[in-house]
Amino acid sequence: MISLDIFSDPVCPFCYIGLGNLRHALKDVPQSPFEIHWQPFQLNPQMAKGGIERRAYLEGLFGSKARAVEAHVPILKMAAEIDLPMDLAAIKRMPNTLDAHRLVHWATLEQRGTEMSEILMAAYWAEGRDIGDPKTLIELFERAGLDPAVAERLLPTDADIEALTAREAHARERGISAVPTFILDNAHAISGAQPVALWREVLADLSALTQGEGIGES
Question: Which pTM value belongs to this model?
Answer without folding.
Answer: 0.94
